Each structure stands twice: as structure tokens, then as C-alpha cells.
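Write out the 3D structure for:
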Amino acid sequence: MATETTSEVHHEGGHEAFPPFDAQHYPSQIFWFVVAFAILYVLMSRIALPRVGEIKKKRSDTIANELDQAQKLQAQADAAGAAYEKTLADAKARAQSVAQDMHAKLAAETASKRHELEADLNQRLAAAEAQIKDTKEKAMSNVGTIARDAAAAIVQHLTGRPADVNAIARAQSEGGGRS
């Protein structure tokens, strides 16, 4: 019983301390901390950080390339939009020109047909007026004969005797001379 085990550590007050917090272990802990830090530093600086740098550079290059591609595509889209607008404006101008040409052509055709119809109607009107004039002249030439016959019939009807045709012709010529 006189022997104590060496694994037991006694401290002031009889309490055992947690080994990492025991001051006698500080030098070895600091040594291993420096060794671990140096190994970790070497690993990080030689392996991990270059890989991260490469990945970062690749991502940066990819983003730059994609932005350049997007700008090229945007320029192409703008050019296509401008070409579309120009084509649309040209088509509208052609449609407007065709519409104006068609309107002018139809107006000329309509005016030509109207003039032809007016000329035809004027000819028909002149022919109708000439026919009316001829019919009127024929009718007026027969008016004298009709008037003499009517006067003779009236005289005979009123007097009961046949009328003197020479007296009726004289009366008619005297009355025709007056206006």
C-alpha cells in the first residue's frame, strides 16, 4: 500500500484537472498545434486554394463568355428586330402605294365609264328630242285638219246641216294669223 500508481495525478486541493488544461502539457500542445497548423497551411496553400482559385477563374471566364454571348445574341436580336421593322415599313409603304394606284386606276375607269355613259345618254336625249320635235311637227300639221273636221262636225251637230268647208278654212286662217 505504500506504492501509488503513477497514472494518478494529484493537484492542489486534491482535485484532478482536465489534461488539456493542465499547464505541464502546454509545451507539447503548442508544438502539435504548430505542426498541425503548418501541415494544414501547406495543404491549403498547395492543394485546396489553387483548386478553389481555378474553379473561381473558370466560373469567372464562363460568366464573361456567357455575357459576351448574351451581348452578341442581343445585338443579333436587335438587328433582327430592326430588319423586321424595316420590312414591315416597306410592306406598309408598298401596300399604301398599291392601294393608291388601285384607287387612281378605279377612279380613272369610273370617270371614263361615266363620260361614256354621259355621251351615250346625251346622244339618246338628242335623238329623243329630235323624235319629239318630229312627232310634234307631225301632230301640229294634223291639228289644222282635225280642227276643221271638228268645227264642221260641231256646226253640223248644232245646225243640223253640213258646214261650209271653205268658210271654216277662212275662219281658221284668220284665227291662225292672230296670236
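The two ends are 187 Å apart (CA to CA).
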